[in-house]
Amino acid sequence: DTDTFLIVREAVPTEEDETYTPSIVEAQLKGDTYKILQECQADYTFDNDSKGWEGGLYFSRNGKRFFLGLCEGNHCEGGSKGKEKGNGMTI
């Protein structure tokens, strides 16, 4: 109805150090073009550029909007710890 979509950026390099943070972009489509309305970075960092958000869920409750990001890798980490089954996380 609104032509507005949420786009998840899996991992964006931070300016402070060698970490990465996921972000959500709110974009509005107009024909063959789009306009970025705003971008919100998550309050979470990854130390590996191959890890980030694998997917997500947007919902509203009591007039507040929320987004849960599903981490790629268990414990939101890479390496052997990221392969430990049963430790999936959302942020």
Descriptive notes:
With 91 residues, the protein is mainly β. Helix content is 0%, strand content 52%. The chain is built from no helices and five strands. A three-stranded antiparallel sheet has the order 1-2-3, with no helix packed on it. Strands 4-5 form a two-stranded antiparallel sheet. The radius of gyration is 15 Å and the shape is globular. The mean pLDDT is 89.
Short description:
The protein is an all-beta fold and 91 residues long.
Average pLDDT confidence is 89
What's the main sheet like?
3 strands, antiparallel
Helix/strand order, N-terminal first: EEEEE
State Rg: 15 Å
Number of helices: 0
Number of strands: 5
Helix content: under 10%
Shape: globular
* Protein structure class: mainly beta
Strand content: over 45%
Strand order of the largest sheet: 1-2-3
Task: List low-pLDDT spans.
Answer: none
Distance between the termini: 28 Å
SSE diagram, text form:
Elements (H helix, E strand, L loop, with lengths): L3 E10 L6 E11 L2 E9 L11 E9 L2 E8 L20
List keywords for this structure.
two-stranded antiparallel ribbon, 91 residues, 0% helix, 3-stranded antiparallel sheet, mainly beta
